[in-house]
Write a structure and sequence with these properties.
- The protein has 98 residues and is of the alpha+beta class.
- The protein is 27% helix and 50% strand.
- It has 2 helices and 4 strands; from the N terminus they run E-H-E-E-H-E.
- A hairpin with a 2-residue loop joins strand 2 and strand 3.
- The longest helix is centred in the N-terminal third of the chain and has 14 residues.
- The protein is globular and about 40 Å long.
């Protein structure tokens, strides 16, 4: 396991009909912090999509910036893939190392 932490950003698009968006944000924030990461979260709210995703024309956009490594990204991706309320997500590595 690499001990070097790198800065990542994730953008999660949630089901627009989801009532408890804050609970979903808290779930992923606690998931990351329980693995030793530091997390900054920005709820960008509900926005329209350029094209339909899973027959939805809008989504709740959640942006998180966090410290992690490759193993954490793998765990996060597998957790998100099983979540039916996530329409789409993307993780990008930012150019800073800590």
């Amino acid at each position: 396991m690499r001990k070097e932490l790198e800065l990542y950003e994730i953008l999660i698009l949630l089901d627009p009909n989801l009532i408890e968006v804050d609970n979903k944000i808290e779930f992923y924030q606690e998931f990351l912090t329980s693995k030793g990461s530091k997390v900054m979260v920005q709820n960008q709210g509900r926005k329209g999509l350029s094209y339909a995703i899973k027959k939805f024309e809008a989504a709740n956009f959640i942006q998180m910036v966090f410290l992690g490594n490759g193993q954490l990204i793998d765990l996060l991706n597998s957790t998100i893939r099983r979540d039916e309320q996530v329409l789409r997500h993307i993780v990008t590595k930012l150019n800073k190392t800590f």
